[in-house]
Automatic annotation (TrEMBL), chain A:
It holds the Pfam family Sec1. Gene3D superfamilies: 1.25.40.850, 3.40.50.1910, 3.40.50.2060, Syntaxin Binding Protein 1, Chain A, domain 2. It comes from the Eukaryota. It comes from Prolemur simus. It is a peripheral membrane protein. Belongs to the STXBP/unc-18/SEC1 family. Signal peptide: none annotated. PANTHER family: VESICLE PROTEIN SORTING-ASSOCIATED. GO terms for biological process: protein transport; vesicle-mediated transport. The lineage of its organism: Eukaryota, Metazoa, Chordata, Craniata, Vertebrata. The keyword Protein transport applies. It is found in: Cytoplasmic vesicle, Clathrin-coated vesicle; Late endosome membrane; Lysosome membrane. This is VPS33B late endosome and lysosome associated.
Automatic annotation (TrEMBL), chain B:
This is Vacuolar protein sorting-associated protein 16 homolog. It holds the Pfam family Vps16_C. It is found in: Late endosome membrane; Lysosome membrane. Core component of at least two putative endosomal tethering complexes, the homotypic fusion and vacuole protein sorting (HOPS) complex and the class C core vacuole/endosome tethering (CORVET) complex. Their common core is composed of the class C Vps proteins VPS11, VPS16, VPS18 and VPS33A, which in HOPS further associates with VPS39 and VPS41 and in CORVET with VPS8 and TGFBRAP1. Interacts with RAB5C. Interacts with STX17, MON1B. Associates with adapter protein complex 3 (AP-3) and clathrin:AP-3 complexes. The gene is VPS16. It comes from Prolemur simus (Greater bamboo lemur). Residues 12-57 form the Vps16 N-terminal domain. Residues 202-520 form the Vps16 C-terminal domain.
Amino acid sequence: MAFPHRPDAPELPDFSMLKRLARDQLIYLLEQQHEVDKLYKVENKPALSSNEQLCFLVRPRIKNMRYIANLVNADKLAGRTRKYKVIFSPQKFYACEMVLEEEGIYGDVSCDEWAFSLLPLDVDLLSMELPEFFRDYFLEGDQRWINTVAQALHLLSTLYGSFPNCYGIGRCAKMSYELWRKLEEEEDGETKGRRPEIGHIFLLDRDVDFVTALCSQVVYEGLVDDTFRIKCGSVDFGPEVTSSDKSLKVLLNAEDKVFNEIRNEHFSNVFGFLSQKARNLQAQYDRRRGMDIKQMKNFVSQELKGLKQEHRLLSLHIGACESIMKKKTKQDFQELIKTEHALLEGFNIRESTSYIEEHIDRQVSPIESLRLMCLLSITENGLIPKDYRSLKTQYLQSYGPDHLLTFSNLRRAGLLTEQAPGDTLTAVESKVSKLVTDKAAGKITDAFSSLAKRSNFRAISKKLNLIPRVDGEYDLKVPRDMAYVFSGAYVPLSCRIVEQVLERRSWQGLDEVVRLLNCSEFAFTDMTKDDKASSESLRLILVVFLGGCTFSEVSALRFLGREKGYRFIFLTTAVTNSARLMEAMSEVKA
Amino acid sequence: MWETWLWAWCPKESQKADEYLREIQELGQLTQAVQQCIEAAGHEHQPDMQKSLLRVGLEGRAGQGWEGGGMDSWGSSLCCPLALLRRLPLETSIPMRVRRVLTARGDGEQGKYRYKQLTIQVLLDRYGKPRAGATLPPLSTPSHSLLYPLAIQICEYLRLPEVQGVSRILAHWACYKVQQKDVSDEDVARAINQKLGDTPGVSYSDIAARAYGCGRTELAIKLLEYEPRSGEQVPLLLKMKRSKLALSKAIESGDTDLVFTVLLHLKNELNRGDFFMTLRNQPMALSLYRQFCKHQELETLKDLYNQDDNHQELGSFHIRASYAAEERIEGRVAALQTAADAFYKAKNEFAAKATEDQMRLLRLQRRLEDELGGQFLDLSLHDTATTLILGGHNKRAEQLARDFRIPDKRLWWLKLTALADLEDWEELEKFSKSKKSPIGYLPFVEICMKQHNKYEAKKYASRVGPEQKVKALLLVGDVAQAADVAIEHRNEAELSLVLSHCTGATDGATADKIQRARAQAQKK
């Protein structure tokens, strides 16, 4: 249980610096504006505050600008004069100022920027808290956040030294990387002297691996996220968990000793662990019998508080487990997982398809159905035309015709596609590759794939051995590979790529995989010969997920780190899961 | 006044100085006097004269008690250029002009007679950048271009870092170079690039701006090509009305804000058609602009799609309009019709058909609301049918299912759920017997148990097919019979499933039975 790190595992860098930096900057900004007395959410509602000045701390979104404009204009109509200040975080966009101007309030507000782009959610997890990144970039093709990513990376390299080894895959990864390099060049000199603290950086686009993000999570932290939704590193446990009539907001990070031991565990182990823990706790409480007064005094002053704290946490997590069990261990969930595994392994496709159809017909859950359809599409290189039409028809009948737009979005993002008629590319490909050298064949298929981007999941899975061969039962208590995060059925593709590249220290030998991922132009390595990098820093790896990462991926890489004596640190545009991805693609009635 | 006065007597009769000094002091204007002495020293070209002037000033300060601050800094700022001048080898024969530049007086913000703090950088700038205008005698071009080597010499002498020294001079030289009207654009650009290369601290965009200032737009563009930071090129390109070039440079820079700035420029500069054409060739800019339009200018968005003959997106646009912009049912249907037409044009028959279905559904829902009351509008087809059944309108629901070709399976699920919700067990049973269930009978058992109706559940359990029989029996809690079936099936998985349901003493006999059956199976 809760495998310790190897004794030689490197220390994590100190992320509290980021917090301090951001805090100081915000305080500075707010001090210019006096007496901020209360915070309100920016909504399309009249401001309740009677203050003479209003300060808005917002994301640079056009919608937010409209809210502010409505508010200011309402004040104007009412004959009120106030001072307004808009603080954009992490940066100001010209488009936003344009909107303020078009709404006729540009002269009334003053604007500022709060360059807070990296929120340390945990000792090893930084989030940019930009869930919109996913839709903006992967659906709308909007590159506005790339600059923000580059700035964030630049900040990291100023604080923790430059990264001697850089790897990346994906179009966005490449753009961010290049922009970041440009920033470094413009401001050279500053970082050069620093000893690098983090030896490797790995940038990865979410669309390189949609499959992993679409799977149901079964590791505790992921399951908690899927079930209760973790927001900004904390979760609202409802009455059914707290076994009282109140909801409780709980911070979930390494500070929570109980949580820290079970977060990366497969759910099937968690309950047993917690009850063992409860017994131990009881035993510790029981020690006080037979204590003399002095010992008792010691116990009360030193241990009791810790025990009580642990007790509280323990009962919370047991409550959460019960609630999850109630929701998930029904037959439905097992069937669901079974179908997912079948999709990943690529057998019983017909059966899975009718399972999905039934799922839709019964209106089980709009988001879940959509997720399964996408999973089917990606693992099968698109749906066969008949299924594509019938599943969509069924879905529209169940959930309304506006989802026509959702499907159009999903197609654009490559999440739910139709196999092109006569799509026997693989057959042609294999014939061609027998005739010509591999390289030439690669070029030919590249030309094809630019026409229709195919996910090639099956081929990639075979190449990278993503479906472990299991002889007998997979022991989830003693995992032997990263597949444990999906009950031993599937090694997350994203994590496998990271593992393989780190092993080789380059993309060498992975050409075929890169080609299958449609990333031939977007896989890069950049090593600077840096003798200053200590061997310790070389075992510290920052993995950057552009478009979001899931807790399962985090758990899998934490596991890999423990196995190999690495430490992984994560930077993500936001923590995501299958539901969030699907919601980002859905068109909801405004 | 003081200046002329001091100028008049100072160099001539030093004996009188003390007298004057006293007089000045009596007037209480010593401070100014001292200042002016020092200033005067700066204006003097002969070292001797400078010395005596400075001496007067310093004496005044020492003898009479200096009240004003900042003397020392004055001294040092003066000393720098002076010392430098003196230390430079005489044979370099610094022209008079340069000396005057070195000691030129600037107009400070506060006092008329305050010396501009002549830092080395300012000095070099002056040196390198001959001032045009009446203050200096006109110089012949060759002689003043000769000053650049000298300036570089000074830099090297002072061991200034490249960015502060040589680069600045080179930049100034380049700015001067672009003013040579008789040299072709090509040659100037090449000459500048050859000399400057990528010297750090040199901004090609500044030089280009200078070229543009001289009316040489083409040269400016050529020079901008050497600017490594594409973002820096954009403002000038915009100024020069090269907006399209500016757009591609902005896109290169990766700075979306910059792209957006250029876009709005373009929008005002070009007519709509040209603007759209430009966007068409720049997908990144296009998506950026679309995002903006989606929130701010919906009509423009439509025009954009129209221009591109992007019927798919046009269809989506009208779909969105059908529920976001339109309130009246007629308007919504009309929007959907437009969408359907667009989808046909986009050869997306599926979407077109789905849209037409939606039009029919909307009209029907409207009619249902009128005839039956209640809420129907905007429900999905499935929910419409469910609502009808829940309202007891079974006939209507069936008609709906026929009209909209609801598949049998869905209809069964739907009816089953709705009738169970109503707890209309009689109707449910009638329904279950209407024909053979396409979804089997296990769902019937499940749903009855969900409503805690074991009695009804058992009715259906008997009809469940052999494959799911065990499951059904376990659901209704008939472990013994489940065991019998499992044994009959000789299915190991089913046996374990039943066994896992055997609890306590009540099922003890059943458990034994299963174990026996297992043992028997193994013997064979």
